[in-house]
């Protein structure tokens, strides 16, 4: 009998090659255990509201009124909603004449793109053009759109930091390109080593790969580091000399947990450097409402901004965007409120400010508790989480554990993470899902569980780790 088009053997090979560890084997096993009644703490994905973070009040009020505009005609609306939320809802409804149920422009609502441009100008000190800003269903859709545009065939390479967020390896495989991994230096707090990066590019070119773009994730996922201004300058010079597009994933720019290295955008550093770089380096920057103190992952609001891309290229990107007709409209409104939040003097300002500050301060404490907790465990070492939402500790596995994993036909860190899941209900992601140096093992966990649950989670991890290390015999801490 002839094979049918959707039989596994007949599928697009790029789809079959695509892997996405964050929702991979560990997540599927955790979901099974949950169905069996086991309490699971899902720390595998940066999903703040799923782990108990409360939504900010003001944006939800604005979107609620936009979703149900008949409430604005109710004479009692002012008893339920503050006047500034009512005014803002009317503002967004005036920008979207068909309401939230109508398609918007394929690039996003022009008035909201203008709000994003104003936000970027305030942040960086340089004007931004709304025509070069596209609103997207989360930052992920924007990243995929750009990679799809850049990758022409399997000989086109994209430089991606390792450890990396697996969106990049998955999308590059899906679009038929080549992943060119450059390793972050764990001993240098996950910094960039340009000697090694240059060597990586030379090796890729010697194999016939055309390296076309470079990805940075700042603050880092899964590694949690914040890049210094000097590092970003070096990065931009490198992209200029090597003729690479820089894809700057800056979705964690509000998640900063130390004062030494505040977030600074690649765009600001580029314009500070002046010509020729500021006129020639092609840069695409990404942001989202899913992270920060917003955590609105399910709303799928995002944007990308293009710098130094030729008009004809922008037209082609518009054509690709228009195939999907429109980014989701509620997500666009969330983005509008994120880039244009309540200001001092507004009725909702104090509440918004207090809610935001409370979430960020708690995340800062949790980042410290998580790092200290890991570093107190036998054979575990962890760099401090300077930003983003994750810890990425190195687990120094005893030789016997590595042998046991081989016998079980598992990668050693998958073996460890599965044992951790079965014993404690803590669902993490093995470091191999993000890439790591040969013979080195990690896991990634979010810092998002409720702060009051942290002592119990850390204690549970420590007890498991102690018994695991004891079982597979002593292995002295280096």
Automatic annotation (TrEMBL):
Q: Where is the Aminotransferase class I/classII large domain?
A: 84-447
Q: What Gene Ontology molecular function terms does this protein carry?
A: alanine-glyoxylate transaminase activity; glycine:2-oxoglutarate aminotransferase activity; L-alanine:2-oxoglutarate aminotransferase activity
Q: Which GO terms describe its cellular component?
A: peroxisome
Statement: the UniProt record of this protein carries the keyword Transferase: yes
Q: Which domain of life is it from?
A: Eukaryota
Pathway annotation from the record: Photosynthesis; C4 acid pathway; Amino-acid degradation; L-alanine degradation via transaminase pathway; pyruvate from L-alanine: step 1/1
Swiss-Prot/TrEMBL cofactor(s): pyridoxal 5'-phosphate
For this protein, the Enzyme Commission number is 2.6.1.2, 2.6.1.4, 2.6.1.44
Tell me which SUPFAM superfamilies the record gives.
PLP-dependent transferases
Coiled-coil stretches: none
Q: Which reaction does it catalyse?
A: glycine + 2-oxoglutarate = glyoxylate + L-glutamate; glyoxylate + L-alanine = glycine + pyruvate
Q: Which UniProt keywords apply?
A: Aminotransferase, Pyridoxal phosphate, Transferase
Assembly and partners are described as: Homodimer.
Q: What does this protein do?
A: Transfer of C3 units between the cytosol of mesophyll and bundle sheath cells to maintain a nitrogen-carbon balance in the C4-dicarboxylic pathway.
Give the protein family.
Belongs to the class-I pyridoxal-phosphate-dependent aminotransferase family. Alanine aminotransferase subfamily.
Q: Which named protein is this?
A: Alanine aminotransferase 2
């Amino acid at each position: 009998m002839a094979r049918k088009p959707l039989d596994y053997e007949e599928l697009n090979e790029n789809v079959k090659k695509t892997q996405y560890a964050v929702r991979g084997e560990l997540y599927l096993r955790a979901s099974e255990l949950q169905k069996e009644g086991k309490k699971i703490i899902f720390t595998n994905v940066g999903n703040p509201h799923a782990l108990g973070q409360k939504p900010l009040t003001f944006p939800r009020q604005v979107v609620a009124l936009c979703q149900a505009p008949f409430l604005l005609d109710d004479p009692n609306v002012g008893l339920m909603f503050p006047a500034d939320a009512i005014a803002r809802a009317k503002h967004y409804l005036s920008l979207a004449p068909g309401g939230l149920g109508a398609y918007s422009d394929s690039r996003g609502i022009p008035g909201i793109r203008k709000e994003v441009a104003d936000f970027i100008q305030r942040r960086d000190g340089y004007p931004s053009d709304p025509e070069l800003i596209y609103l997207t269903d989360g930052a992920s859709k924007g990243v995929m759109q750009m990679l799809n545009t850049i990758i022409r065939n399997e000989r086109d390479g994209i430089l991606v930091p390792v450890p990396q967020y697996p969106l990049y390896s998955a999308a590059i495989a899906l679009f038929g390109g080549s992943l060119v991994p450059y390793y972050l230096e764990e001993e240098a707090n996950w910094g960039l080593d340009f000697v090694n990066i240059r060597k990586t590019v030379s090796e890729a070119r010697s194999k016939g790969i055309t390296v076309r773009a470079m990805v940075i994730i700042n603050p880092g996922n899964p590694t949690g580091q914040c890049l210094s201004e000097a590092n970003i300058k070096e990065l931009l010079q490198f992209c200029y000399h090597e003729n690479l597009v820089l894809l700057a994933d800056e979705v964690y720019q509000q998640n900063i947990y130390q004062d030494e290295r505040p977030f600074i955008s690649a765009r600001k550093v580029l314009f500070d450097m002046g010509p020729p770089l500021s006129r020639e380096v092609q840069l695409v920057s990404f942001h989202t409402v899913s992270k920060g103190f917003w955590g609105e992952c399910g709303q799928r609001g995002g944007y990308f901004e293009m710098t130094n891309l030729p008009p004809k290229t922008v037209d082609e990107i518009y054509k690709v965007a228009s195939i999907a007709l429109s980014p989701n409209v509620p997500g666009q409104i969330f983005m509008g409120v994120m880039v244009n939040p309540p200001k001092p003097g507004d009725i909702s300002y104090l509440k918004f400010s207090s809610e935001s500050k409370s979430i960020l301060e708690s995340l800062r404490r949790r980042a410290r508790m998580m790092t200290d907790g890991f570093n107190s465990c036998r054979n575990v070492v962890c760099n401090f989480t300077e930003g983003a939402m994750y810890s990425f500790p190195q687990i120094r596995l005893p030789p016997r554990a590595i042998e046991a994993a081989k016998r079980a036909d598992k990668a050693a860190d998958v073996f460890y993470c599965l044992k951790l899941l079965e014993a404690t209900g803590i669902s993490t992601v093995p470091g191999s899902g993000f890439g790591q140096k040969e013979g080195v093992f990690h896991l990634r966990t979010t810092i998002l569980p409720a702060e009051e649950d942290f002592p119990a989670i850390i204690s549970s991890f420590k007890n498991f780790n102690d018994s695991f290390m004891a079982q597979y015999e002593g292995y002295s801490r280096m």
